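G., the chain you wanted modeled:
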Amino acid sequence: MRKREWVQRIEQILDAYVPDPEVPLHATSPFTLLIAVLLSAQCTDARVNQVTPRLFERADTAAKMLALHVEQIEEIIRPCGLYKAKAKAILGLSKILVEKYRGKVPQTLEELEELPGVGHKTASAVVSHAFHIPAFPVDTHIHRCAKRWGLSSGKSVQQTEADLKKAFPKKEWIRRHLQIILFARKYCPARGHRVTECPICREMV
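Predicted structure as tokens:
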């Protein structure tokens, strides 16, 4: 099967198994999404969704967050892990948002990546899901599946992102990114993966 035909087949399977992908992190604004994505580093989305309601009840804007003490933030987000570094980053980026952007979250990757605690993946997720600007955030699930499915060499996250952007139409990037994450968690996991039980992998046998 040629590469383009294989990509189309993957698209068909993703559409069949994950027809209506939704952002797994709960957020009500660009700011709350930014904080949720930051907290999700080395933490499950489910755990983040358990923690953020309490945090956002106290501070759902940069200005309100800036009014909290770092210890207050640490106490709330402790279950997410790396809580000291994350709390420091949350306060740091909130300060920049208030002073430089009037409390608003910027809409470019470059501006977002300059914020404390915000890397390329986090910035890509925010522009995608907060502002609907095409991007292809690559997490561990996507990186793993892209290699398994022959869509990328898997040598680096950067290479995987570039390869997937070439494989899928730009208008589909946001949808495909979510579909692959949700599909991977259920059908193509890192542990206990069985080729015959994955709807995509079994077509490669």
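Residues 93 and 115 are 5 Å apart (CA to CA).

Shout if anything looks off.
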